[in-house]
Amino acid sequence: MSTHDSTDRRPRRARTALGALAAACALVLSATGCAATTSSAGTSSPGTSSSGTEPAAGGSHRPTAAPRRSAPAVTEPAALARARVNIGEGATVGVGMPISVTFPSPVPRSQRAAVERRLSVGTEPAVTGAWSWVKDRNLFDGQRVDYRPPAHWKPGTRVTLRVGSHAVRHFTIGRSLTATVDVRRHTMTVAEDGRPTARIPVTAGRPGLDTWNGTMVVMDKQPKVYMDSRTVGLGDAYQGYYAWAVHLTASGTYLHQNPKANTYAGRANVTHGCVGLATDGTAERFYRRIIPGDVIRVTGSKDTMEAGNGYGDWNLTWDEWLAGSATRGKGSSGSPSHP
Predict the structure, then answer these.
(1) How do strand 295-299 and strand 177-182 relate by DSSP bridges?
(2) Contact status, residue 150 vs residue 61, Cβ threshold 8 Å
(3) Which segments carry the region annotation Disordered (predicted)?
(4) Using CA atoms, how far apart are residues 245 and 277, in angstroms rounded to an integer?
(5) CA distance 190 to 213
(6) Active site residue 256
(7) Which domains does the chain show, CATH number per domain?
(8) 274 counts as catalytic
(9) 0.70 surpassed by pTM
């Protein structure tokens, strides 16, 4: 059960009373931020602080017959010291999870290339990828940069992220799970490792409150979430807890248990924008199969979600993604990760 933001072309999906796991696990690298083997010099809508400093880049002085000056030290952008990462240390995430790094204040355009070059991604096996500056729905331009490959990660990939000399994250890509919601046929087809494993009746957003179209990535999930339509200007349409809630967008789209699905799943779209599953155990079974980073694809609807409305990164083509990089992806190819 959700609504769209009134600042959009349609009402916003309902906010939750529980904080998104992505926000809960996010840690300020100098304090507490959240997240996912590629290498980058140079990535969004949901860890602990980790050490792992690296010496600042700089020249060395070697005595010779003709003394030479040392090369000047390269200063790290100050923004890196307070960056947050969306993937926690040691996490296992789905194949769609981008690495998302956010900053407490906007990074000026003149400094963004330097920031990208100090964000290093290493993988085993090697994977090509690139950073791109994403306008997060809830942040200013320049406060978020994401990393993704041209296509979804390969299951089993081990990833190491280094945020300059300030922090390191190690995470693993788990099995592949993709769920495709066809709002016209009122069904959701689940595929694991490329093989269809289930076809589930669903009910999606009713006309005028249509579910976002496009590819979403699971941000987090909660056994129970409180939703209140009054917070988004829809009066008393709904108010209460909804179980087995899988969080899909920053604007409030969830895939969750909904008593209305007992009647309408597989037949009609009647929700306020969320995707509803029946209370007969269907919603709980799906919930227990899902991990953050799994891919939910919605087809047959209308407006496509924006990249910064959660993790909508995959709704951009690779060329569009590279266009958002301050380095245009140069130096962002993957390389083996190191301890």
Answers:
(1) parallel
(2) no
(3) 36-76
(4) 10
(5) 17
(6) yes
(7) 21-55+78-174 (2.60.40.3710), 177-313 (2.40.440.10)
(8) yes
(9) yes
